[in-house]
Amino acid sequence: MSEMKSAMDKSTPWRIYRYYFFAFLTVLALIVPWIQVNESYFFLLSFDKLKLHLAFVEYDMQELYLLPFLLMILFLGIFGMTVMGGRVFCGWICPQTIFRVIYRDLIETKLLRLRKRIKNKQLEPDMSKLENKIKKAVAISIWIILSLVASANLVWYFIPPEDFFTYLQNPMDHTIIFGTVLSSALFLIYDIVFLQEDYCIYVCPYSRVQSVLYDDNTVMALYNTNRGGHIYDEHKVKQFTKQEDIQVNEPHAECTACESCVTVCPTHIDIRKGLQLECINCLECVDACTVVMGKLGKPSLVTWSSDYEMIDQKGKTKYFRPKVIFYIILLIATIVGMGVMGSTKEHMLLNINKENRLYSVKKMGDSRIRVDNAYEFLLQNTENTEMKFFFEVSLPKDIKGKIEIFKPKKEFTVVPHVKKKKIVVLRTYDMLADDSRHDTVIPITIRAYALGHEDKIVVFRKSTFTYPRADIIEGAK
To answer: pLDDT by residue (tens digit) across 150-172?
Structure first.
């Protein structure tokens, strides 16, 4: 028994693992906006330059078909995570939880000693003391600075950091950007300092969604009523407050009624009451009970387990059950779909619009009839270097004749990320149709390309060439 107790005392609390994970996520969130490969970012949704950077590939706003995939991956990942591990996202990944831990556990408790113990989150500091008022003011001041950093960090995913600091030199010229930073910072100050975990309990919609995702095999922080005893009745009304009272009704009950699991809970719930939407799966109660029961040489009464395994005792938790496999398949399919769509990135963008006048007809000196169609090409070079572009026109195989490019006569230069408008005139001297009643709309294919990169930087666009009816051709001057 002494060996068992020693092993339990040496086990690393879940809280420490959370701290390490929080530190990793914080550092990751801060450095990701700065990482560039060939002037492209890992993720940047630039409202400033109307670009999406994803996995170091740059997409134009016209290629934002990838964003729905990102949203689907986000929601499928969170929902699948909930099916498997309950509200583990809230306890281990959610920025709200991370910020609260930084403010409450690091600043108020460890740094300023405003709170006496991390393990007692129910006891608020005595604010009648001047010393505590000063510490509270210092804590809020520190958090104001951190809130501004966090808000700026959020904006860096929409405005490149180097541009952000350039804009910072003239903030009045960029009021929307810095207004967003200040608004986000004010919200974080109110949320973390004053609203606290009430945001998780009353505001966050995720707590309501999770209840329909749970099943008997969902892993979460659970109190073992089989060993500890029933502290609450079936109506969730507390029956006992002392160990002696518990053991009168349930002689083998092991709960000591110390309520360490209650005082340590950041959302102020009693885990012994059963499943509650307010539980964020932070596992603080597991750590607290592990310490208390470890001193008695017994395993914790609160563990990260499932109803199927611990309460109903039907066997081991089934992690890879149909519901979980379904989410995994959907997630993989979405990632593959995004990869396939992303691999078809266009290195140039081209929109073709016909001008309002359908055509112009003129009889040449050699009796040939010239038919012109005019178009407006809107082209954008999505690469990072200046390139020269041109195009060619092809007709369906069943159309005898050819269409030549009258304007422009030669290739033209397009600088990166700037839309270039080009008036294009296509001309034919051949009789492409002979209809006495209607104009003939002939489908054509435009192949636009970058000179020197014809195999890679090329797009095909469908358009039409309108050929006049026979009487217009005959009456041409």
So the answer is: 999 999 999 999 999 999 999 89
